[in-house]
């Protein structure tokens, strides 16, 4: 993780959330490399993060140690909004950078009270939380009504970075709601069909266009 002072474009983004009349001397721009952990489930939240660029996956860990991918952020949204509005000071999920990731970080406890008294911010965050609820409903439909191949193709497109898909396969099978054995058969079939190529570092996407065609609805089934 690297930190730097805020720039004008960061201040402009915060202004879109109604945060323009607050002292922002304690705020930072944080940058994470692909693969870095941003938050750990159950650990104290240090910052409320406004996404600038990049993609992360949000996971919840079961007692058996398996991770369930809940959704993805791409270049927008707030990390920590749910915790802020429910007065929770520990992260409710783990967040991992899939690509290089940049965000604006506001110290959580320092700004929590001021943000909750900011009507413009509350209106914006209320709208975003409502949209998340709608997308959760869409995710349920996605998991329930689409075929295993469609769900897997969609997941691969979202989780891949630089054309390589290398997620932990046991976690993938949990996240898309199928057995590991069935998912592995589907991966082998995608390789046989020429869409993927199995390598030591993961699966190389060979035919992205066909993968897109087999994924339902523009493969956005698990976006936050």
Automatic annotation (TrEMBL):
CDD domains xrefs: CAP_ED
Domain of life, source organism: Bacteria
Annotated ranges, domain Cyclic nucleotide-binding: 32-132
SUPFAM superfamilies named in the record: cAMP-binding domain-like, Winged helix' DNA-binding domain
Coiled-coil annotated spans: none
GO molecular function, one term: DNA-binding transcription factor activity
GO CC term (a single one): cytosol
Stretch forming the signal peptide: none
Pfam families: cNMP_binding
PANTHER family on file: CRP FAMILY TRANSCRIPTIONAL REGULATORY PROTEIN (PTHR24567), REGULATORY PROTEIN YEIL (PTHR24567:SF26)
Protein's recorded name: Cyclic nucleotide-binding protein
Naturally occurring in which organism (per UniProt): Lachnoclostridium phytofermentans (strain ATCC 700394 / DSM 18823 / ISDg) (Clostridium phytofermentans)
Record lineage: Bacteria, Bacillati, Bacillota, Clostridia, Lachnospirales
């Amino acid at each position: 993780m690297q930190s730097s002072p805020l720039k004008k474009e960061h201040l402009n983004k915060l202004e879109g959330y109604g945060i323009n009349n607050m002292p922002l001397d304690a705020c930072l721009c944080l940058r994470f490399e692909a693969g870095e952990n941003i938050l750990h489930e159950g650990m104290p939240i240090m910052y409320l993060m406004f996404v600038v660029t990049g993609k992360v996956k949000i996971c919840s860990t079961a007692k058996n140690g398996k991770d369930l991918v809940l959704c993805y952020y791409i270049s927008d949204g707030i990390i920590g909004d749910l915790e802020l509005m429910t007065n929770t000071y520990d992260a409710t999920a783990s967040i991992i950078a899939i690509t290089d990731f940049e965000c604006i970080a506001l110290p959580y406890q320092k700004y929590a009270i001021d943000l909750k008294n900011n009507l413009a911010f509350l209106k914006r965050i209320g709208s975003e939380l409502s949209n998340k609820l709608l997308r959760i409903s869409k995710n349920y439909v996605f998991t329930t009504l689409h075929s295993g191949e469609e769900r897997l193709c969609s997941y691969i497109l979202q989780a891949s970075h630089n054309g390589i898909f290398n997620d932990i396969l046991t976690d993938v099978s949990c996240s898309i709601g199928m057995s590991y054995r069935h998912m592995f058969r589907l991966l082998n079939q995608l390789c046989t069909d020429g869409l993927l190529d199995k390598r030591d570092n993961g699966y190389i996407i060979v035919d992205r266009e066909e993968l897109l065609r087999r994924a339902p609805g523009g493969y956005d089934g698990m976006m936050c």
